[in-house]
Amino acid sequence: MFDIGWSELLALVVIAIVFVGPKDLPRMMRTAGQYVAKVRAMAREFQTSFEDLARETELEELRKEVSSLRGHVTEPMRSLQREIDKPLKAGGGAGAETVKTSQPLDTSGVSDGIAGTIREAEAVEAYGASEPAPIGGTPETKRDGE
Fold first, then answer.
1. Which residues does 53 contact at the CB level (< 8 Å), separation at least 6?
2. CB 107 within 8 Å of CB 118
3. Average pLDDT, stretch 97-104?
4. pTM of whole model > 0.70?
5. How far apart are CA 12 and CA 122, in angstroms?
């Protein structure tokens, strides 16, 4: 911080002894040390409060970012829920025809696994199957005695 060499330090000690005197020099050095300690404590407190302020600002930015990401993530799920909640049969009766949707769902904001599941469900719906085939490919049959 200060570029004080040994020669400058020696000159300061000689000047202090001449002006203050050898009797009061220890008291003056103690007082100067106390002032330096107070200044350091104030600087540390200022730095800590400044770091806390920076941390709070970063936290506020993170909160805003998380809330915007939450909106981006939940919007595809909301659109999927709206599509699921749409009535599938026109007229509401048991013999009513199924309404076919010509547009596939927008899967740009969902993961690959969910998008693949949505495409499979759309394919099943397009072929008119009431239930998708089991994983093994053959329907399960009950055996006698089960």
1. none
2. yes
3. 56
4. no
5. 88
